[in-house]
Amino acid sequence: xxxxxxxxxxxxxxxxxxxxxxxxxxxxxxxxxxxxxxxxxxxxxxxxxxxxxxxxxxxxxxxxxxxxxxxxxxxxxxxxxxxxxxxxxxxxxxxxxxxxxxxxxxxxxxxxxxxxxxxxxxxxxxxxxxxxxxxxxxxxxxxxxxxxxxxxxxxxxxxxxxxxxxxxxxxxxxxxxxxxxxxxxxxxxxxxxxxxxxxxxxxxxxxxxxxxxxxxxxxxxxxxxxxxxxxxxxxxxxxxxxxxxxxxxxxxxxxxxxxxxxxxxxxxxxxxxxxxxxxxxxxxxxxxxx
Length: 290
Prior knowledge:
Blueprint: E1 8-11, H1 21-30, E2 40-48, E3 54-61, E4 66-76, H2 79-95, E5 100-109, H3 112-121, E6 127-137, E7 140-149, H4 169-176, H5 179-192, E8 199-203, E9 208-212, E10 215-216, E11 220-224, E12 229-233, H6 239-248, E13 251-252, E14 262-266, H7 270-273, H8 275-289
Parallel strand pairs: 4-5, 5-6
Antiparallel strand pairs: 1-6, 2-3, 3-4, 6-7, 8-9, 9-10, 11-12, 12-14, 13-14
Helix pairs in contact: 4-5
């Protein structure tokens, strides 16, 4: 079937006679998923901040563990909106410390100058910058959101590969796991080698990681236990992945929100039976590490 080309026009919202910031707020509030940060829930809009104005939108993830303080700006980014975004994030995290908080700045035009300024904060402040484009197609309007700066996750010492305490195979066979569960890790390594044959084990204190031609790449981590092997995969949480894992009957633990990892327990003889789905998950996790 032939597809028809439809011409579209980019709209300047800042100078539009009818569309404004409130219109954008209402669109996002109705469907927060459109900004590309996952399945989020609207917690508040125009949220009053003590002695600091109003937060445009407050969103929360479906697991109620992370909140996103969203500031919207029409036109080009400027100093006031950057400062306001960080200020609202700081107020909310102090008021509600039980949640992880992320500052989100959405603007029509995030200039290279201010992208550089925002980048200076990233790593100290969990900050996401998203560029917004309003597109008109015929009589219809659409908003397109493109993430231009992602949150930089801060690592703990155990996540710092250069300083992680080295161990050996005997440590995992005798102290943490068993020869049998380390053997399951051996079987998993064979599947990992179908992704890239150069991967080898890197034994450290808290897990068995991976090394490839001298470079550490822990797209999957293995923790041999007494009766099974715990693996964690670097895959953003999604309904599609959840469904694949459930349909395969894998033993899944709670998702690790902090490090964006699925955690799955593997028992002896399970790898061969469920090899197809495990290889698929390995490939997805590997591609996320590139």
